[in-house]
Amino acid sequence: MKKIFQTCVALSVFALSARAEELNDFKTHLSLKPSILHGSLDKNFAAALKYDASLKYNLALAPRDDLAFTLESRGAVASKPSANSENLFAAFLFGYAHDFYDWTASEPVPVAGERRGRALPTIQQDPFSALVDFSLKTRFETDQLFNNYNVTYGPQIGFTPKHQQGWAYLMPSCYVDYSRVEVLHSQRYQQLGIAENAFWRLDASAGWLYPIGSEWFRDNRWLRPLDVQFDFHYFRSFDLPAAAQHASLDEAFYYAGTIGYNVRSINPDHPSAFARYVPYIYVSVGRGRLPPVTRSQTMIFIGVTYGLGH
What we know:
mainly beta; 5 helices; globular; two-stranded antiparallel ribbon; twelve-stranded antiparallel β-barrel; 12% helix; Outer membrane phospholipase (ompla), Chain C
């Protein structure tokens, strides 16, 4: 598995460099969330920064099929690390994606012999579509203090609904990873006297976003910006030493609920000066840990989101 993955990475880098002159084809994303954090393991409030960044290049095989190379990094850091049970990671992915969607004509399309002098009907994409992707992924992951850090590699499969409306928002984005974890350093393993440095891990995650305001309160300018999000992660490790299992390191959960308020949606055509500096406010409550972090706790983030990208 490791040699196969390394070969795929090498081929990906070669193909990417062959088209490197088309830099405008890269898609970038950056989200910064300066926040105030309160963790249940630390009684004081802490300054925190959550971030999500990616650089993606699509080879554009066909309208519905694509190959993509992605560099991404995500994590959270806090002025009091004991209050933070989220991880930091940087990853490289090479994968194939297929977009499932259909088109609907506004009226029957005339046959070839009857088209002269008649305008063709408009064709619109159906409201629901989904993206299914399969990737090979390697990533470096660590806790904030770099007391425990790993390198992982393996396959990932994902499902992402698109163009949702109404109750279709209840359908989550889902990802499943099955990775080989190579432990580079683990203070916790050293404390437990564990010399084993590799194991397999299953990571299943799901995420929901429901724009309550735009779905239920479209005519109310103050409630229209509201949305809610829910994220869930489950980690299950295999072939761990007995000491790690006894310390509950073989299984982990993380779930978080978020309420967001898009200040720019109050007056989208002429946003206020306040909306330019504070575009999106959020409150998030999470519980658990994201490996290789070893301690679970409840965390409350209150902050502002700034987003860039194209």
